[in-house]
Amino acid sequence: MAQVPGRRPVSPDAPARDESASRQRGRLRSVLNVHSVIGQMFVLQLVIILGLVVAAVVLLVLTLQRESTRDAKDRSLGVAQAFAQAPGVAQALRSPDPTAVLQARAEAAREGSGIDFVVVVDRDGIRRTHPNPELIGEDNDEDMSPLLAGRTIQSETTGSLGPQYRAFVPVRAADGAVVGAVSAGVTIENVDDRVAQEIPALLGAAAGAMALTVGGAALLSRRLLRQTHGLGPTEITRMYEHHDAVLHSVREGVVIVDGARRLLLANDEAHRLLDIPPDAQGRRTDELGLTAPVAELLASGRAATDEVIFAGGRLLAVNQRPLDRYKGPRGSVVTLRDSTELRVLAGRAEAATERLKVLYDASVRIGTSLDVTRTAEELAEVAVPQYADFVSVDLAEPVLHGDEPVGAEKELRRTAVRGIREDPPFYPLGSLIEFVRATPQAVGLNRGRAVLETDLADASGLWAQDAERVRQIVDYGVHSLITAPLYARGVVLGVANFWRSQRSEPFEDDDLALAEELVARAAVCIDNARRYTREHTTAVALQRSLLPRRLPEQNAVDIAYRYLPARQGMGGDWFDVIPLPGARVALVVGDVVGQGLSAAAAMGRLRTAVRTFSSLDLMPDELLARLDELAVGEETREADDAIVGATCLYAVYDPVARRCALARAGHPPPALTLPDGTVRYLEPPAGPPLGVGGMPFEATETEVPEGSRLVLYTDGLLEHRDRDIDVCLDTLAGTLRDADGTLEDTCGAVLDALLPEPQRDDIALLVARTHVLRADRMARWDVPRDPAAVGRVRNAVADQLTAWELDELGFVTELVLSELITNAIRYASGSIGVRLLHDRKLICEVSDGSSTSPRLRYAATTDEGGRGLFLVAQLADRWGTRYTAEGKVIWAEQTLPSRTA
């Protein structure tokens, strides 16, 4: 169609846009009309309100006067009746001097009732009381005949006090005879004064209404002037015409949205570029069917400068600025420029747009995870079907395991396959491929550049690799190939193959640059994932090597555990089971803040420190205090693996006393499941995490029945996005309450109920079922502080060993006990006790009230003594000292004969 020179072509949606512009001009004219008549409205409102106020004031005055008159008459009648019927009034009128009795009473009634006069007259009409004493004794001007007949009279008349409202009420004696009358009333002057007192309030209310109306009209006028910036109708009209002409004529899209993300304005170019519907004004941007990048930008309201967005088959250069930066209302203005047309003028615009879109998608979609296989799959997903119909990615075997490739690999593992159909005849996923030197893949790997095969039927190198498979590929319809090596930091990682079938044009030389750019970005992401995999694998291996490889043998508890490393990263969670002297056992769980190798190394040092301190047989709170000092000291080191914040729970279970002592440093409380199924949390004071310093730790001790289950865990078990920690603790308690199987079943049930998804932190779970050392496996004696008692104790011990069938250990045991008891008698204080425990080993314990620990020394050849502890250390497997609240215990262990162990 021919176009008129100098004019833009009329688009199909031009009538809709003209209608939109017409509506905008109509709204502007309405604003201008309001601006021009606002003064007239102000004057008219003022006149109407003034008339209404005057009418209201007059009406209220008349109403008030009428009500005041009625009130005066009613009060006059009420006072007259009350005084006439008052006791003693009739008797006073028959007395010789009525005035002496009634004058004071009448004045009191007048003053108390608030009326102007109370007058008492006798049957002859002579005043016996009056507010003016000079008028007492004079005739009243009222006709007495109706009063003597017993009627009440109300009238408006002029009396001795002037115009007044008054009421006459007859006074009757006890026999019913009328002996006089009482007159009460209010002067009209006082009634008018009361009305006058209310007029200022009425006028004030009227003035307030006037002020409110005038203020509202002035505010409306001021707001309109502010919105129009003080411009008159002519200036606003001219400004709008220029704005409309420029806005809808420019070849740049303009979109304005408000703070609620509703479309306020879109010019013709914006309608064309974004395919905005004609009725879009006033609707939310997420309801306009815009492409995802454009909708995201409009919804965010963030500032953007020359961002390139693909929308509607075009590449748009977009700028966005918030309106409130320029003291305007909330919202944003967006300008759009079609850069696609500029590329068309430069040539091959459509192909370039597709390539840019592929690269744009690659920058957004490749490398979203740190998984090598997933990154290769993302490369294939980006290229299909925008760039190729099929994509296969082959990676070197070391890359998949996080290892460093050694160079050009001969064998590659097929890691990802993606295509427009599901059954391509390529090498299957997971297969190991060795490319011969003539193949395009091997040539590309050797050259370090992408290789193009425009016709697979003539690709001799591929036929040399596997002629039968290439025939299947050609018969399938695949006709061209680009193979590009994956290089990162100068090391080959693998190769990516891009295939096209008969439904697409074959690859050309211009496609090689895009393939190389695409695989270059993917190679960096794959190498990052490989290096992360290597670090993750190393950290996992390190941490597992630092955790217990097998649980130690002991009879105090049965143990089941689970350790789950985080899916991404590696934390510092750990656990341990440590046998202690006296058939006791220590259960430990801890968590080091941070992830990676540094956290694993810090965990290993803490676990080693706990084992070292436990060999000193410290109380739980003392052990945590030593750990805290270690952590505080490490924080001063300038090292990446310094211990900065860690939690720990240390519990010691004694199967002889059936008690558990525990303390914690910022760690979740352990759970205790009793044999009857009751679950409760043991909550000693939490204490600060290790490394904080300055705060003491407290230990608590609780009785644990035989067959109970102690459950220790790290906080990774409780970290859920959608559940509060209290809910998780309730869930754990419910799961333990219902778990009645083996300890392994309990671990599985807990993880099934509480395992977070996704798991972002390590999880260590330890479940211990308690046992009790039977009474027939224990023996105890109190030893007097007498050297002769040593022999008696030796004999008793020998008899007990015979009962346990441990006669083979009798000589060593008697010798060890003799040395320990003798030392206690000589150097210790307090009561002395001896205890034998028949557990996995024979344990001899000598307790006393002293806190002084014996020290092993090596006697010289000329010394007569000093060899006692040396003999104990040589004869026993282990020996040591532990402190109690009453003193100390020196113990020694011996291995049982194989037949009784």
Question: How does the SSE layout of this entry go?
Answer:
Blueprint: H1 14-84, H2 89-93, H3 98-113, E1 117-122, H4 145-148, E2 153-159, E3 162-172, E4 178-187, H5 188-227, H6 233-247, E5 253-258, E6 263-266, H7 268-274, H8 292-300, E7 304-311, E8 314-322, E9 331-338, H9 340-346, H10 349-365, H11 372-383, E10 390-396, H12 397-400, E11 411-419, E12 432-434, H13 440-447, E13 451-453, H14 460-465, H15 467-476, E14 478-488, E15 491-501, H16 510-546, E16 557-564, E17 572-580, E18 584-592, H17 597-615, H18 620-635, E19 646-654, E20 659-665, E21 671-673, E22 679-681, E23 700-703, E24 709-713, H19 725-738, H20 743-754, E25 763-770, E26 778-783, H21 789-803, H22 810-827, E27 832-838, E28 841-848, H23 868-875, E29 878-883, E30 888-895
Antiparallel strand pairs: 1-4, 2-3, 3-4, 5-6, 5-9, 7-8, 8-9, 10-11, 10-15, 11-12, 13-14, 14-15, 16-25, 17-18, 18-19, 19-20, 20-23, 21-22, 21-24, 24-25, 26-27, 27-28, 28-30, 29-30
Helix pairs in contact: 1-5, 1-6, 9-10, 10-11, 10-16, 11-16, 16-17, 17-18, 19-20, 21-22, 22-23
